[in-house]
Amino acid sequence: MATTNWTIDPTHSEIGFKVKHMMFTNVSGKFNEYEATIATEDDNFENANIEFSANIDSISTNNTDRDNHLKSADFFDADNFPKLTFKATSLTKKGEDYEIAGDLSLRGVTKSVTLPAEFSGLMKDPWGNTKAGLNISGKINRKDWGLNWNSALEAGGVLVGEEVKLNIELQLVKL
């Protein structure tokens, strides 16, 4: 089988997340700078080799003070750990979609995660490029990677939720 290489189309992709704020609303954010190398056997994504990284300094929640706090040692500690990385260990077909498992590294801590991945199929764009779509969702607990900062609320509860909901929309381009 021939190896097919893919890259992320950054103009049609988003590496997003949501976290509860004050126990009742979500704050959304994303990483604006990221890269990936993806290799498949022909156009079959099962058992694809996927390596991904995002620059922590590119985090954006539409609030400069909050973004700077997230980059600080209270959270991601971007000065010491400038990248978030993910290396897939398996991509398994589940019906029409996939389940992606791999090692997620943040703040020098690596943990295995398994996330559902919705496969949108293959399509040629108007310029003849073959594209594939993947939507990766799921949840992680930020404390598993040492992102422990929080503040108690006067009425009970905490300022920042532990659960992080992932919403990763990827449009891949065949190289």
Structure overview:
This protein has 175 residues and is mostly beta strands. The chain contains 1 helix and 11 strands; from the N terminus they run E-E-E-E-E-E-H-E-E-E-E-E. It has an 8-stranded antiparallel beta barrel with strand order 1-4-5-7-8-9-10-11. It is elongated.
Secondary structure layout:
Blueprint: E1 3-8, E2 14-21, E3 25-31, E4 34-41, E5 44-55, E6 59-60, H1 64-71, E7 83-94, E8 97-106, E9 109-124, E10 130-141, E11 160-174
Antiparallel strand pairs: 1-4, 1-11, 2-3, 2-11, 3-6, 4-5, 5-7, 7-8, 8-9, 9-10, 10-11
List unreliable stretches of 5+ residues.
none
Cα Rg:
17 Å
**Tally of discrete structural domains:** 1
What average pLDDT do the residues reach? 89
CATH level-3 fold name? Lipocalin
CATH superfamily: Lipid/polyisoprenoid-binding, YceI-like
CATH top level label:
Mainly Beta
Please summarize the sheet with the most strands: 8 strands, antiparallel, barrel
Strand content: over 45%
How would you summarize this macromolecular structure in one to three sentences?
By secondary structure, the chain is mainly beta.
Structure characteristics:
175 residues, 8-stranded antiparallel barrel, 1 helix, mainly beta, Lipocalin, 62% strand
